[in-house]
């Protein structure tokens, strides 16, 4: 089955690349890196947090040498404005709520998965169907990403609807900040509600 999913994934990537080009490359890195951060954090939260700090240090160093040939070539290919700012807000957006969750005794691995998949697929769907990223098409893509994140993290299916809706409605702030903080707040809210006896609203499902 792994070969089938890999083959389908490669074919789908090649199909989308014809229309989306560099934007697809950026979002593929976005999804891949977010999933990797989430997986490392799932294994051990401290490892995930240290990994994010390491990414920030590497990013700061690369920013200092951004005018060198190879770094500038990479930025031209994968950064919207050649600054690498979106990569910085991506990591910071996961790190800060992860630190808050960790301090509350929560394993915050799910935060990275939701940012990776909801934001990644909402952008891809929005661009593919020639509409703005925050459009109905983008919302559908975000919900699909939310479903994937639910399956990956075994969190409450409500996340798959609520997080994309929040991303769709809040247009003034960076999605790299909106999605992670909204995900953590929703997790805490559902945990409080489920403690009142509404167990079906538990943020974590045992499936």
In brief:
77% of the residues lie in helices and 0% in strands. With 207 residues, it is an all-alpha fold.
3D structure, described in words:
The chain is mainly α and 207 residues long. It is built from 9 helices and no strands. The protein has helices at 2-20, 22-43, 45-64, 69-78, 85-103, 109-128, 136-153, 158-169, 175-194. Helix 5 runs antiparallel to helix 6 and helix 7 (136-153) packs antiparallel against helix 8 (158-169). The model has no long low-confidence stretch (mean pLDDT 82).
Topology:
Layout: H1 2-20, H2 22-43, H3 45-64, H4 69-78, H5 85-103, H6 109-128, H7 136-153, H8 158-169, H9 175-194
What are the main properties of this structure?
207 residues; mainly alpha; 9 helices; 0% strand
The overall strand count is 0
Q: Kindly state the percentage of residues in helix.
A: over 70%
- N/C terminus separation: 20 Å
Write the H/E string, N to C: HHHHHHHHH
Shape: globular
Structural class: mainly alpha
Strand content: under 5%
Radius of gyration: 17 Å
* Count of separate DSSP helical elements: 9
Low-confidence parts, pLDDT < 50 over ≥5 residues?
Answer: none
Q: What summary fits the major beta sheet?
A: none
The average pLDDT is: 82
